[in-house]
Amino acid sequence: MRIAVIDDERPSRSELKHLIAECLPGVPIDEADSAHGAIELAARNSYTAMFVDIHLGDMSGTDLCAVLKRMQPDVKVVFATAYDEYAIQAFEMDASDYIMKPFDPGRVRRAVDRVTLCAAAAAPEAPQPCARMNKLSILTDKRVVVLDISDIAYIETDSRCCIIHTPAGDYTSPQPLGYFEKKLADEGFFRVHKSFLVNLTYITELSPWFNGMYCAKLKGCDKVAIPVSRKQVKAVKDIFEI
């Protein structure tokens, strides 16, 4: 069993986590302060239930519910919010429960009991954390796109945004290149230049360019020349044992 609390307000997250922990001692309870963060959690772990606020900064809770249900059809979604006008919409989306702020401990306990009973009825064994799914969620405009990491050829930045290049198309995100560099640190990506993060498995050719720099050619990106800065040339050569 694993639970997640999604709310952009830290006090509400902390209070709800505490109340759930009192009902389910020892059960892992993760948290996120945005829809994007929730999707990243769902890409890494299997959840019994996710408690979701209706109003999140980057996506509505109801839209997030639809995304989570596509990612994990068996997850139980409980809306936890100060707004009661969304109750009908929540249940139309197959939400397991709907609890109001400020939280009443007894009401939270009933919601927890409901989702645990539903989960037990659906599967004899509680779900365990799933294997890493090798997915990356990208915030683009007001949508969150979930990509297979292996489909990302490279990511570039123009200081205002990042462009994620895949065989299926390009995606523009306001997230900085440093964010993607950290997320993909263990996935075979390398920052060959201050403006380029490259999937090393896509590199097919390295050749000298100018001013001590190198040029990298990538599989499926024949018209693109990726600069390798002088600072990173040695590291790239070492990676490919050149």
TrEMBL record:
TM annotation in the entry: none
Pfam families assigned: LytTR (PF04397), Response_reg (PF00072)
HTH LytTR-type domain location: 136-242
Family matches, as Gene3D superfamilies: 3.40.50.2300, LytTr DNA-binding domain (2.40.50.1020)
InterPro entries in alphabetical order: CheY-like_superfamily, LytR-like, LytTR_DNA-bd_dom, Sig_transdc_resp-reg_receiver
Coiled coil: none
Residue span, Response regulatory domain: 2-116
SMART domains: LytTR, REC
GO molecular function, one term: DNA binding
Listed name of the protein: Sensory transduction protein LytR
Species of the source: bioreactor metagenome
Gene name as annotated: lytR_34
